[in-house]
Amino acid sequence: MSEVIVVATISPQEGKEAEVKEAILTAIDKVHGEPGCELYALHEAAVGTDFVMIEKWESADALKVHGGAPALAELGAAIGPLLAGPLD
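The structure assignment produced for this chain is given below.
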């Protein structure tokens, strides 16, 4: 199987940037422990307040498992109400 690269843009509500960033940072170690995770890295946009996650998974199957993993569910619950819109 081929590696899968994911680029996700996260747009926090104005004034909620620090809370969103902290929740993401908390999730990173948990996600790195998931099978097939090769990279789960937070970046801040050069312009604006968006965050960008760069993810590298060993396979589409590993990414699929991540989609139902506790770490992602916890992250979604933590940041969902703090976002300006859906993830891109």
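Interim note for the steering committee: The longest strand covers residues 37-44. Residues 17-32 form the longest helix (16 residues).
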